[in-house]
Design brief:
By secondary structure, this protein is of the alpha+beta class. The protein is about 45% helix and about 10% strand. The strands form 3 sheets. A 5-stranded antiparallel beta sheet has the order 8-7-6-5-9. Strands 1-4 form a two-stranded antiparallel ribbon.
């Protein structure tokens, strides 16, 4: 093991200790074989030195897609990596398996085994590189057709990450993971023509769709699983200001684990492509959370989520409403949805240019 300056890192070096930011957030886990993407991530967090193993490993060069520019974005490079291709394949395979498991559970053909259901989620975490890499993967899956079971996996992964950021005990992290995975199990009982509709739902259809929370609770209320999971299935659309459903609960009457899943659910729902709309830009969602998050969501959950999620976008390329593109180089802690963007030789502080905003990741 040796200490190496970040400026001297090269692909093939192996991380020998977990790498953390100055405020103790995981950047890369021990054992990561560095490539250009991971080195860029380390540099983006203003780190100076890290510990690496004496021996290096071979890193296969990543082929660029035909027609890529000479300066592909971080996201473009990521989507060409073997790690992303494998992750995408595995999450899609697990979504199909989860659908079948939910169907069998709804028919009482198999028991509801929480540990068995969540095992693939933890495997996906390992493939993504832990909490530091999971949003890199999810942000680049947003153009996939929306599906209930892909959404369930996404919410489970995000809920686990939020609970980890909150430094909750391992038992509660596991509960958040399981609750996120099971939160929409009631959609098994929603008519398929509504579930798979290609246009926005009518008011009547939305009312039927909203019944998935009570139908889901009916499916699992007598199962031998933790009460927090049952509450989450019933409460993941409740808001602290009473504007949610089905019971318009307020404040601390909402289960603490459900409060985590609620944030994960809203973020994933909005930032994922739907058959009837494009994905909402994550920074637009972050702006919405900044505006009304403390009224609608558990303050500890939403503040933890916001202060961490924005850092997952450092080094990502974005498009502004002016048509300019550039890379995020600095997050403004007072205006999280308004980072500083480097566009060529120009540095644009969005907090000081209120007419400009981020409209897409590129």
């Amino acid at each position: 093991m040796k200490l190496v300056s970040v400026n001297k890192l090269i692909p093939g070096m192996v991380v020998s200790e977990n790498i953390y930011t100055l405020d103790d957030r995981l950047v890369l886990p021990k054992g990561t074989v560095l490539d250009e993407n991971s080195i860029e991530r380390i540099k983006a967090h203003s780190l100076y030195n890290i510990f690496v193993e004496e021996q290096m490993k071979t890193v296969e060069p990543k082929a660029e897609k035909k027609g890529d520019s000479d300066n592909p974005s971080y996201a473009e490079r990521l989507r060409n990596t073997e790690e992303f291709i494998i992750f995408k394949q595995h999450i899609e395979e697990n979504a199909e398996k989860l659908e079948e498991s939910f169907r069998l559970i709804a028919n009482d053909s198999i028991p509801l085994d929480v540990d068995k259901l969540t095992e693939p989620v933890y495997n996906l975490f390992v493939e993504a590189g832990g909490t530091a890499g999971i949003f890199d993967m999810l942000h680049n899956l947003r153009d996939n057709a929306d599906a209930v079971y892909m959404h369930s996996l996404n919410v489970s992964l995000i809920s686990n990450t939020i609970a980890t950021w909150m430094r909750l005990p391992q038992e509660k992290i596991q509960l958040a993971t399981a609750a996120g995975l099971l939160h929409d199990i009631g959609k098994m009982l929603i008519p398929s023509d509504i579930l798979q509709k290609k246009e926005a739902l009518t008011e009547y259809e939305q009312k039927i769709m909203n019944e998935h929370v009570t139908k889901g609770y009916g499916l699992i209320k007598n199962k031998d699983i933790d009460t927090h999971i049952k509450n989450t299935v019933l409460m993941h659309h409740e808001m602290r200001d009473g504007s949610g459903f089905p019971f318009h609960l307020r404040g601390d009457k909402i289960d603490e684990i459900a409060s985590i899943v609620t944030v994960a659910n809203v973020y994933d729902t909005l930032t994922t492509r739907k058959s009837y709309r494009a994905p909402v830009c994550p920074f637009e969602v972050i702006a919405q959370f900044e505006e009304d998050g403390l009224q609608k969501y558990d303050p500890n959950v939403i503040m933890t989520f916001l202060s961490n999620i924005v850092n997952t976008f450092i080094a990502n390329r974005v498009m502004l409403n002016s048509g300019q593109t550039g890379d995020i180089i600095f997050i403004n802690p007072d205006h999280l949805s308004k980072p500083t963007i480097k566009c060529g030789d120009q540095f644009i502080d969005l907090a000081k240019n209120r007419g400009l905003s981020i409209v897409a990741l590129v």
